[in-house]
Amino acid sequence: xxxxxxxxxxxxxxxxxxxxxxxxxxxxxxxxxxxxxxxxxxxxxxxxxxxxxxxxxxxxxxxxxxxxxxxxxxxxxxxxxxxxxxxxxxxxxxxxxxxxxxxxxxxxxxxxxxxxxxxxxxxxxxxxxxxxxxxxxxxxxxxxxxxxxxxxxxxxxxxxxxxxxxxxxxxxxxxxxxxxxxxxxxxxxxxxxxxxxxxxxxxxxxxxxxxxxxxxxxxxxxxxxxxxxxxxxxxxxxxxxxxxxxxxxxxxxxxxxxxxxxxxxxxxxxxxxxxxxxxxxxxxxxxxxxxxxxxxxxxxxxxxxxxxxxxxxxxxxxxxxxxxxxxxxxxxxxxxxxxxxxxxxxxxxxxxxxxxxxxxxxxxxxxxxxxxxxxxxxxxxxxxxxxxxxxxxxxxxxxxxxxxxxxxxxxxxxxxxxxxxxxxxxxxxxxxxxxxxxxxxxxxxxxxxxxxxxxxxxxxxxxxxxxxxxxxxxxxxxxxxxxxxxxxxxxxxxxxxxxxxxxxxxxxxxxxxxxxxxxxxxxxxxxxxxxxxxxxxxxxxxxxxxxxxxxxxxxxxxxxxxxxxxxxxxxxxxxxxxxxxxxxxxxxxxxxxxxxxxxxxxxxxxxxxxxxxxxxxxxxxxxxxxxxxxxxxxxxxxxxxxxxxxxxxxxxxxxxxxxxxxxxxxxxxxxxxxxxxxxxxxxxxxxxxxxxxxxxxxxxxxxxxxxx
Length: 708
Hints:
There is one protein chain. Helix 11 (276-287) crosses helix 18 (446-457) and helix 12 crosses helix 13 (326-349). Helices cover 39% and strands 17% of the residues. By secondary structure, the chain is an alpha/beta fold. The chain starts with a helix and ends with a strand.
């Protein structure tokens, strides 16, 4: 029979749930009214205002699920509700937007620093129904308060995965919130190990900045991820926070119109990614401007004009001094040179006057020019206008010279000679020249090179944005960084990654290029490198607009799994500390020895026995044919499937209820394979198993062995 205390506690919980349900119903009624108003305004809007009302309607509809998720009871007796958007009645705040300053104590208040908060309540809803409450008392003197609920954060961490990332707006922790609300105006680099919430923090920071800096909305926002699978995985986070107008892209997709038709071997990709490629591209473009060493005769309308080398060099110097890219500067060169040619031609035409029959009237001076006496005689005969007060007038005025310039520029023969000196170029032909290829098929590593060449030439390189989020930033080469920085002239960026998870040989390696090695390309603005592509060199941590922040707490990966991965991290990255896990799963990782022949059957048996959430089989590509014989393989991977097969690179940034790593030795054998294996081991929220043909790698030998 239940005790009186338990009955009282249950009754108190029911009363609190009913009160919160009543308030939530009120909030939804307010949101419904705003939604109806926005729909009506949209229906009546003209093309200039319709986008605003469409965005407003999307914002209100995205807040339908989880509209209100928190309450703050303050020591002064006040009460604040926190949710996905702000709702007001007259001057009263019915609901605070989670990004508002007044809502921040919901994430930062602690027993040591309560920020005036007496009690923090997390409100869990399903649709428009309140289903659970979780109270946390921050005022030790308020002993009479009745607290309800359990641990909301733990519930969120242990919930089964759905194949799609959800926002963490209801459970942001203080360490994460500090970065989300960081107002650093430049590039904020966030280093964080597995499970620290790097991606979610970056996306929530973007949502916060769009709220705190409304002008960013007009400039747009870009999220760059390592793959389309990853971008699909995170695709509903920002819409869930009310942000719909954000562009997502991989690095390769940032090259407009570039079709990827081949894959480079690792050593080639590394070479293409080096910063020195910028200098080679710039030099290749400069090499195509070739002034003649001897005079060149130009045939124009039955006349021969002489193009002198010194005149070419003067026009080239004038065009180069403008600082314009190659193709726009070429137009300056042409205008400058053609203007000189037109004036020279006009001077020559001043020497000859034609009578009514077309016969030339020759001058009487020794050089054949028409002198002052000749001009007076011609004026008396009515052939030309007589001299004015300032002396003899020219036959051709500036309008005539302008017409000559136009005619010269339109002349095919003249144009061909000018193009020999300063040719028009395309990015594709420049990169093909640098690489010594035909340029018929491009790789992902070629995209930054094509973008660099387009920038040097003055071609369109794609849209720019007010803020850019870069996930898995450790994978970017120096040339990829240059391309990204061109997309963000303001240098307002959130860059997140983990050096211990670098899989691309062209990216940042912890033992060779720490985050400090990214400071030159990240801090430099266009024009800070000279024409050879050289950079000014490393800057001190206080210089420029680059800053490093760290996430140190692992919310995803259980302590047992991180302990199993610790020897691998220590062996290859002794300078990096693993993040601290906040929970134990109560189950230790296991490994099982098999053979290549037995692998499909063993794998099928393990998968068949799995019944606890979504399972990822992570294996090197060499085994995918064997795996396909045991497990259905979808291409491209569908993360909502109960079982999904991925390479370590494809698994980067993702998480699953259970992970089965196949042949860790083969993964280790790849370039930076130790980082790929670290990624594979740390994708799970609960269970980790390892199948290894032959003996296990030394770093994993301490994991418990299972025979069946």
